[in-house]
Amino acid sequence: MGNCVSQMLQCCGLKQEESSQHGESGDLAPLIDSSGDCPGNNTRITCEPYYPVFPKKSEEQSDLNKILQDMATNVIDVASLGSYSLEQHEYRERMSFYITKLKSPMSSKSLSKAQKQELLQDVPNPDKVLISICSVPDDDLTFVRDILNQVDSLLENLKLVNSDALIIPFQIQN
What we know:
This protein is mostly helical. It contains six helices and no strands.
């Protein structure tokens, strides 16, 4: 068997190194001669070094740390935004600010009148233009105007009463 192997190696241009044990090549003996000479073929075949598919442990750790850092910057910590972070006078200031913000557009009747007049700016007196184009009986026109006036007065008298707190603090009992 040893003779057959040596003949195959010689045929391929490889030398068989003899070990001290029984004339066979050892497990640690190189299969290709280090000189790189191949009989019959002067080109040398080079192999790229093997790069493992999986990243090194330090690269994995740095990638994981980067992902965790990105997540930490994007997460909102709701527990840190608890009610204990604001003092009583800050609550009162914010409450008065929100109340004034809510009341400011509703208390101004001139603003609502101005918005009604700005509805059709490009057409002067749209009601008169529509009446001149199509004939609507006066009874129907007065009926519609009365209904609209009633709806307008109902909307002006409409008030929203909130009996519950808008912000309910949740406190965890230990």
